[in-house]
Amino acid sequence: MRITQGCFSFLPDLTDEQIARQVQYCLGNGWAVNIEFTDDPHPRNNFWEMWGLPMFDLRDAAGVLMELAECRKVYGDRYIRLSAFDSSHGWESVRLSFIVNRPKEEPGFRLDRHEVAGRKIRYTTTSYAAGRPEGRRYGGS
Amino acid sequence: MSTLAVTQGVSEASTRQVDLRQEFNEVGVGEVLDQLDRELIGLRPVKRRIREIASLLLIERIRKRMNLTSDVPTLHMSFTGNPGTGKTTVALRIASILHRLGFVRSGQVVSVTRDELVGQYVGHTAPKTKEVLKKAMGGVLFIDEAYYLHRPDNERDYGQEAIEILLQVMESQREDLVVILAGYGDRMDKFFASNPGFRSRIAHHIDFPDYSQGELLAIADLMLQDMNYKFSPDAREAFMRYISLRKTQPLFSNARSIRNALDRMRLRQANRLVADLDRVLTNHDVMSLEASDVLASRVFRKASGE
């Protein structure tokens, strides 16, 4: 199952050139671009790990792409996303984020139905990948 | 219509011919070069070299439109010359030329020295150097006094690590970044001798000559004009003598010495004006530097003392 989240989630995966253009747009607006990665694909997993520090004061997308290439080298089997942080007063939050890398195989989610009192059903989604320990979820050793 | 097709490089017929003059004007590189001629005094070999580079880039741009692909020309440069010969100023200009011709995307200059590239403990250097490189991407990275990166007397110096990262990026991301190394001639030669990788990755070695006496005077005039001051005729004559004396003394650093001398003269002029409080100052008074302001310099005393 192909996980989607953030911006451009209805589009096919962006090419590097398209990513560069989007990053350039972010930098043009004065946003700091961050690289984050995770191997826990659950939609409620808000806390992805950061690759290095947020990149403030960049002028050109090539710098971000350089870091992204480094990150892919190490965590190419995980989800990687870019997020753009707007530090201007009143915003001070993430303005845009999109996935730039995903594992080759995404096993998807299991839906658990939990029957509770009064014939009510509670639903839980569990990622099949999350069954294995962190770091080994997508074929990583 | 046809210009649109040309820029996209899709039309076969229209990319056969390009009007060179139109192209030249369109890019606006002429303005930058003229400005360079106007505002930078002397430096004839440097200007010639920059013109050559600009021409090459202009032709390269046209070739690209004609679909005659070739590698991106290597644009890394090294500027050598004595202190105060305008290396930094020229680096700024180069950046704007490269930007106009579309060889760097944003045209900013990130100016760094050893401190900003080399870390203080193990594992500190690589992130630090990369940070700087990322900031400079799409523009020009100007490394002043580049020879400090290499400390031959200390084997465990982290400078070598910074050099390796620099070399790697200079090679692999030539279209994203232009690196300009600057420093004094003899030390740069030693630096290149011990880092042959650098020498071969840099296409343009530009040597900045010292200024002649007349050029230094012209520079002083230009500086004063920018600061809204002027020499009285006597002072100008005295300053000419000042230059010839100062040039022979040690630690002379060309335009920078001139700037410092002018700053000291402004100080003396202000002091002279304030000394007499019971007078009405005119525009002329506060603008002009007198001979006495120049002649009070230490340089003259030393010369007459010997």
Could you name the key traits of this structure?
heterodimer, A: about 140 residues, alpha+beta, four-stranded antiparallel sheet, two-stranded antiparallel ribbon, 2 helices, about 30% strand, B: about 300 residues, alpha/beta, five-stranded parallel sheet, two-stranded parallel ribbon, 16 helices, 7 strands, about 10% strand, disordered N terminus
Rg of chain B computed from alpha carbons, rounded to a whole number of angstroms: 24 Å
Structural class of chain B: alpha/beta
Strand content of chain B: 5-15%
Give the helix tally of chain B: 16
What is the chain-wise order of helices and strands of chain A? HEEHEEEE
Q: Biggest interface pair, residues each? A: A-B, 12 and 15 residues
Query: Which range does the strand content of chain A fall in?
Result: 25-35%
Give the helix level of chain A as a range of percent.
10-25%
Give helix and strand order of chain B, one letter per element, not per position. HHHHEHEHHEHEHHEHEHHHEHH
* Annotation, overall tally of beta strands of chain B: 7
Using the alpha-carbon principal axes, give the shape of chain B: globular
Distance between the amino and carboxyl termini of chain A: 22 Å
Oligomer: heterodimer
With helices defined by DSSP (H or I, 4 residues minimum), what is the helix count of chain A? Answer: 2
The average pLDDT score of chain A comes to 92
Question: Could you characterize what this model shows?
Answer:
The complex is a heterodimer of chains A (141) and B (306). In chain A, the strands form 2 sheets. A 4-stranded antiparallel sheet of chain A has the order 2-1-3-4. Chain A has a two-stranded antiparallel sheet with strand order 5-6. The two termini of chain A are 22 Å apart. In chain A, α1 (16-28) crosses α2 (61-75). Chain A contains 2 helices and 6 strands; from the N terminus they run αββαββββ. Chain A is α+β, with helices and mostly antiparallel strands. Chain B contains 16 helices and 7 strands. In chain B, the strands form 2 sheets. Chain B has a 5-stranded parallel sheet with strand order 2-3-4-1-5, sandwiched between helices. In chain B, strands 6-7 form a two-stranded parallel ribbon. Chain B is globular and about 70 Å long. The termini of chain B are far apart. The A-B interface holds A 52, 55, 57-64, 66-67 and B 105-106, 108, 127, 130, 133-135, 137-139, 169, 173, 176-177.
